[in-house]
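Reading a protein record of the kind used here takes only a little practice. Think of the row as the fold of the chain written in a discrete alphabet. A record is reproduced here so that you can trace the correspondence yourselves:
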Amino acid sequence: MIASDQALDRCRQLVDLARSKGADAADAVCRASTSESVSVRLGALEDVERSESEEIGLRVFVGRRSSSIHTSDFGAEGLAVLAERAVEMARLAPEDPYSGLAPEGRLFTGETPELDLLDAGEPSPQELREKALETEDAARAVAGVTNSNGGTAGYSRTVFGLATSHGFARGYASGSHTLSASVVAGEGADKQTDYAYRTARHRADLPSPADIGREAGERAVRKVGPGSIGSGRMPVVLDPRVGSGVLGHLLSAMSGPSIARKASFLLGHEEDQLFDSAIRVVEQPLRLRGLRSRTFDGEGLACSDRVLVDGGRMTGWLTNVASAAQLGLGLTGHAGRGGGGAPGIALSNVVLEPGQASVAELIGDIEDGLYVTGLFGQGVNLVTGDYSRGATGLRIRKGELAEPVAEITIASTLLEMFRALVPANDLELLHGIDVPTLRIDNMAVAGE
């Protein structure tokens, strides 16, 4: 796989080629990755996978017309053909008054902070196999586990580079290590399955295989023998693993492109008190070893810590160049970039800050409610805010977690859920979007 400096050289080369073919401006983004994983099942090796990919994308501007194109051919002749085709395509494209490169004065400059995103050591296939076996063994050792879907250990490394025709050229490398297990509990028609996984930038930051395996086993066992629940309105408590989705819906609806298309349920609520005044949501792109950490966005702007919700109110939309121009707003450093195409919106290490109550205190006054550990279905409409998902979890009786329940639907609107949301104090920074346990009163629950 190419190194960061090689990725940047390819980007610069492609931008120069586009300018020589008649582009007024251009940017190029290069992404290369390698990954390896080992899977075991019932103590035996099941699968070994290794993949490598390299891709470079070019975006060119001819006046107010633009086009995007990408390739995995890094040869000199292939890049020259790519640049020529991109310029030809741009000349045929309709004019877009909002597209363009970020203003030169807003580009990231200065020293790049060290975010420690790459572990120097790369595990061998044998090491991965041993970790996968340990993880599965721990899951299978949990009383009540009757079968296994397997354990997996993996490693990946990614290189990213971005260069523009007005002088920006930066890149970085990152890596990740992953452990997971999925097992079955119960017998016959009452079999239940669940999983646990963890990803970290450095191996040293991963929990032990025993901890991950034990979590997978315990999650599966506690689902055995589910009943249902009477329909009605009641308090619903979301496990952090599923609660992060509620925050994800908020972030998606705050996206500048969604606002520009008038396709967000948050339109008209810019100044409203969406949450309780104690609620804060923060973004931390410069967190050391963060899974979504980055120093610059997909258009070359510096990333910095930002409060997205303060005192229960949004602090503004999340923009890239095109949406900022369309909405008449400033740039927020949230452009996201894949291997090709125009920039979208991407966020970095978003956290809903914890509350004061423990989980036990959060549920202690609930006479009859639902603790949700799993959600399924696509019943979330980000244009209207309507929310309806299938759910599994545990009954809450007299302030205590009780028997498992399944085949349930929970429903409300996202705005109503935001207003009722109360966080516990059990926040852990594990993923790219993290929340503590969340309580939402008066949700509609459909069961028996």
